[in-house]
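Extended Data, panel c. Modelled sequence:
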Amino acid sequence: MKIGPKGQVVIPRAMRKALKLDPGSKVLFTLEDDKLILKKPTFDAVAVFERIAKSGNSVSKIDPHAYEEELEERYKRALSGR
């Protein structure tokens, strides 16, 4: 294979078919020594979180200051532990 001017390569059709990769599919790249490894993710985390968000209660019910209160509480506990 040749690398194109934009750094792109074509994944051979047989390999795309074997991995069930379609246009828009997500893949992971990792380096191992002098090898570039392409893997199909076992699941799409974004899709999982979107499905959870759509099926759950509205996030608008969460107190926007809850995080600040939690940080303050942790800070107080850390100071008292000294």
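The radius of gyration is 23 Å. This feature is highlighted in the accompanying rendering.
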